[in-house]
Amino acid sequence: MASSKSIHVEVDGAAYTDDVEPRLLLVQYLRERLGKTGTLIGCDTTNCGACTVHLDGESVKSCTMFAVQADGRKVTTIEGMAQNGKLAPLQEAFHQCHALQCGFCTPGMIMQSASLLKENPNPTETEIREGLEGNLCRCTGYQNIVAAVKSVADGVEYGDSGVSVAESLVEDAESAGVS
Amino acid sequence: MTATATSKPEVGTARLRKEDAHLVTGRSRFTDNMVLPGMLHLAMVRSPFAHARILSVDTAAAKGSPGVLDVFTGADVAAEQGSLPNAWPITPDQKAPAHPAVAVDEVAFAGEIVAVIVARSAAAARDAVELVDVDYEELPVVMDLEEAYTDKVLAHTSLESNKSATWVFDSAQAGTGTDVDAELAASDVVVERTMYQQRLIPAFMEPRSTVVDPTGQQITMWSATQIPHILRLMLALTLGIPESKLRVVAPDVGGGFGGKLQVTPEEVITVLAARRMGKPVKYTETRSESLQAAHHGRAQVQRLRLGATKEGIVTGLHVDLLADMGAYLGLVTSGVPILGAFMYNSIYKFPSYRFECHNVFTNKAWTDAYRGAGRPEATFAIERMMDELAVELGMDPLELREKNWIKHEEFPFTTVAGLEYDTGNYEAATQKAVELFDYDGFRAEQKRRRDSGDTLQLGIGISTFTEMCGLAPSRVLGSLSYGAGGWEHAQVRMLPTGHVEVVTGSSAHGQGHETAWSQLVADRLGVPFENIEVLHGDTQVSQRGLDTYGSRSLSVGGMAVLAAADKVIEKAKVIAAHLMEASEEDLEFANGSFTVKGTDQSTALGEVALAVFAAHNLPDGVEPNLDSEATFDPVNFSYPHGTHLAAMEVDTETGEARILKYVCVDDVGVVVNPMLVEGQVHGGLAQGIAQALYEEAVYDDAGTLVSGSFVDYLVPSAPDLPHYITARTETPATSNQLGAKGVGEAGTIASTPAIVNGVIDAVRHLGVKDIKMPCTPARVWHALQEAKTTGGVQ
User: For a designed S-S bond to B18, which of A157, B514, B541, B615 qualifies (C-beta 3.0 to 4.6 A apart)?
Assistant: First the structure.
């Protein structure tokens, strides 16, 4: 086993000092050492994006970085997105737009979406799709994820009626020619 | 008095999901998140060869590796590991090799497990994998399905043939139709084609993970599975552990799509390792392992003959199918093609039909259920064939379909495959789709581009479909030799506070059961949506259940929930009558309260629940308990249907196919939550489109999976998929009181042929008659070049 190295990292607002093996991935450090299991691992080739977090405010795939590379830096995970007991706008929008089903890709999708909106506050649908290219979802077919991100860009304010207000989600329920 | 009246029905409302809060905040409980005291970790040593004899396994170096506590081989656990189960022997003489979790003498696909490392950390376990020295004697491999059928090379030395079973349905023999050979011989036109269903990988986003805790009274397993109940039973049978000593929990599960409808070697091995060590053990696969060794889907060769009169009335269909089992028979591997057998005739009134299926072994990962399981394959074949027939007859493909489909006034309709379709309205769904799509407008644009020789050609892809859902009537499963029934179980528990716990045997992994079941019960019991908790996925909580697959949860599981809720009302009525000193016959139940007819005297269900808890004043002989359970066994399948239309643009210079517009109108019966239905349709479409354009599990000749990572297996991302235009018609099912039909698989089943028909329609006038899936730019381009050089003959 290689010798360990001491790192200082701020994660979701808390400071940590830990000795880590140089080969330890950032995502493993977050999950196994800090218990930040909200960040998930979906692949081993940096394709799926489930492990996306923010490093000094920019999205990175935490399976592509060693923990030692985060030394002295600031990491935000999905667990640090809600503030003062209130969901971040993207978290609320994903809920409201039914942009998640199994929820496995969701943490990475939300982190990547936040990064996308920071870089481009008014993206078109095409720009949203391209901005999420590195994040795979197998459940939703992406349409509602795109709608959720767009709604945040458009400044949609969601109430808490418990019923979806995203109009495109509620179809025309009338029966057509049915006896 | 508690006010429990609900003003608006919950059913039909786009209720936001109860499931979301923990998932959007990262407070998820996926199996790999679990940590237990003293927990050990596994890594698997997998065969790099697709077919080889194991001569020796030297584990000494691995055992000496830092952090490693144990290494075991197939020989070490041969006496206790049993053989992995196949629950669907389709014929009495079905042949199958023994299927040990850890291979003992021979491996039959690359990725098969030959040894197991147990270590203090996952990293230490993986480090030691490379230190295990396995001496293999390579054996010849058979990778091609059609070649495997010839038996020139055997996938298993223990079997004399690669043929596992042959299963036949013949409408003349079954008495459901006439003789297909006679019909085809007398037909004006017979179209013959061979279709290839490429091998797909379910590719759920959460890699499979299992934790087993052997401490305490029971062995507890947490696993990323769709089927905690079936898994528990099968583990008990496979390992000889009393079922009562096993508890299986499916916590948050990150997608399944049939891919987690399995009893896996890894699950068995984790139990074995935990038992050996006496400590909790975890195994989580890497994505590469998942792609290599979790079961695959599809992989069929379909030889088809479709006859018709010159007016376009179909006379018969003959299907000769080769189905690739891969190396082993998994839980329902052998039955997947049989589920398709009933769907080749689709929505049509064919007078004759014969289906002959040969299940064949190859040296690849085994196949099993993948979203739709048999039905997408059948639908693809018939919808491609209807397009081919339309071309042959010079007829509009929609017109041809209409000539042959069952009219809405003809339901219930017994099909040539022997199923009774209860309801449907193909005219209504098609009309709505045509309008939303602007069918005539696209045909005009297509003509314009053809006439002008545009490099961007336009094709219109049509797919009309139905599927058998709501698996399944137990008697029907019995007649098909499936090893279990198709019922579902539920329990409704009234808490003293008036809150309700609903326990369901269907085990959700993204579908939204907690939300939908709450809506059902809220309406039935008049209890607020928020006061209902749905519990599932733990055999200690939901003791009975048959889990989630085959679009069954609502039409079977939801019915069990309603039946249990009705029993609560029945029980409560006796007590409410006693409390109000009224006669039971004089009580009516609405909006959560019992009211004495014609008076304003009423008692809320919550008040009855509290009275039952206290049990101070109950009628003589009535037990203080309102909790109820029910088991629902459907009398028939349900039959969702729909019409999907795709406008495909093909760049004739690059071969790239692009979706310009996708319209689908689905009829899934009565809808409990339109938002959830919409979500299921979207996800289904994405997977069906992925088969048409992007995905394929590719092996090289030596048996190595080439598409062994997400770099090479192309799960589409957001820019690869279009904005779907969706709508519904609603013809209620009559096979269940809800009128629900099921929606989980519809999008996947219908979209693949719509896309491929569209691609071919775009380039047919250039001489292309068929393109194998996935229709990648390279394949389309090559088809165009070939058509140029051969003058269109393929």
Answer: B514
Question: CA-CA distance, B362 to B89, in Å (whole number)?
Answer: 18
Q: Is B489 helix (H, G, I), strand (E, B) or coil?
A: strand
Residue B674: asked if its preceding bond is cis (omega within 30°), the reply is no
pLDDT digits (tens, 9 = 90+) for B237-271: 999 999 999 999 999 999 999 999 999 999 999 99
Of B235, B210, B209, the closest CA to residue B85 belongs to B235
pLDDT in tens, B124-138: 999 999 999 999 999
Chain B: residue nearest A44 by CA?
Answer: B287
Quote the minimal CA–CA distance from B505 to chain A in Å.
18
Nearest CA in chain A to B719: A129
**Pairwise CA distance, residues A143 & B719, whole Å:** 10
Closest to B729 in 3D by CA, of B348, B432, B402, B421: B432
Q: What is the pTM of this model?
A: 0.96
Give the H/E segment covering residue B608: helix B605-614
- Distance from the B729 Cα atom to the nearest Cα atom in chain A, whole angstroms: 5
| Binary contact (A101, B717; C-beta < 8 A) | no
CA separation for the pair A67, A29 (Å, rounded): 6
- In the DSSP assignment, the letter for residue A31 is I
SS3 letters across B168-202: EEEHHHHCCCECHHHHHHCCCEEEEEEEEEEEECC
User: Per residue in B77-111, is it b (16+ CB within 10 Å) or e — as a string?
Assistant: beeebbebbbbbbbeeebbbbebbbbbbebbbbbb
Which residues lie below 8 Å from residue B175, measured CB to CB, with a gap of 6+? none
Identity of the residue numbered B681: V
Residue with tokens 């008076």: B599
Structure tokens belonging to residue B513: 């059961």
Is the separation of the CB atoms in A128 and A146 below 8 Å?
Answer: yes
Task: Classify B711 as helix, strand or coil.
Answer: coil
The region, left, alpha or beta by phi > 0 then psi within -120 to 50, assigned to residue B535 is beta
Chain segment B131-188, per-residue pLDDT in tens: 999 999 999 999 999 999 999 999 999 999 999 999 999 999 999 999 999 999 999 9
User: Across the interface, do B679 and A101 touch by the CB < 8 Å criterion?
Assistant: yes
SS3 assignment, position A128: helix
